[in-house]
Amino acid sequence: MQNRESDTPARPERVRKLKRLILALLVLVMILPMIASILMLIHIHRLNRQLDAMKDQVALLQQNREADALHAEDAVETQTDSQADAQMDMSIAADGKDGGNDAAETTQVDPEEMIDPGNDARQSVTEAKTTNPSENDAKVKSCKVYLTFDDGPSSNTGRILDLLAKYDVKATFFVNGREGPISESLYKRIVDEGHTLGMHSYTHKYDEIYESKQAFIKDLERLQDYLYEVTGVWPRFYRFPGGSSNEVSTVSMQELADYLKEQDIYYLDWNVASGDAMGTNLSAGALAQRVLGMIGEEETQVVLMHDAADKSATVDALAIILEELTKQDGVEILQVSEDMDFEPVQHLKSNE
Question: CATH 3.40.50.1370: does it fit domain 111-345?
Fold first, then answer.
């Protein structure tokens, strides 16, 4: 009897402990799934963020490819434009060629290259002057050089900006309308790094831009508004597709130039053409020689180059050009600005 009585007080204590244990287990069983669910939700959220980031990267790459493809299509349309072909045929005839095999073998070129004043003569001078680089150095005189790039932005624009930063040189980019995060980031980078952002039409489609004065204005305003929205900069410099002396436009180019002046927009042509828009696929060395061979011929020299997706040779040529020009004491490399002398590099003659 004594044993049974001595065990009696211990039972309630054991029961209470057992109850607490059971309660703790129940609570644990309830909490563990909740904790596991929370951890799983956090993991799923992280995976979703990583997936979204990957989707954005894929989308950016796709947009860049589409933009480059669009530019390539525009370039083909420009080269095959019937009016441009007619202009090229006139140039061939002026050179004394009567068609036939000579005409068939002639490579199509961008109208911008075709109307470079004295282009053929300058090429011969270039070849002669670049035979001996040391002689070139002695012949270069004091001049202001403006490096300009048309048809961007593209995958090559970033490479060009890297080179300009390396040599601490500012340039001017006459851009087309390219939508999407990658192109917008390049517009912003041009501005943020202190270069001049110019306009080169939104579409670069000659038959649309030069269909009428109203069509030209519509294209101009579309690009100007878009660039301001992206960069916060109101661009005030313009380069006509094909140049101001092109023969493709069905509208008087003088009338369009006068309109730009009314809008306080400065238009700019060029007097040094790199040759990178010609259909001959010149090497980087040849492109650089063409440019360097003409530097020093005028006090104000505007160099025409292109930063389109298919102009990798231009990027390589730019490295050579910058390396040489930055060594010349008499050469000042500048960006287009309102205080520059525009008249020497405007192909149209002023009415004033």
Answer: no
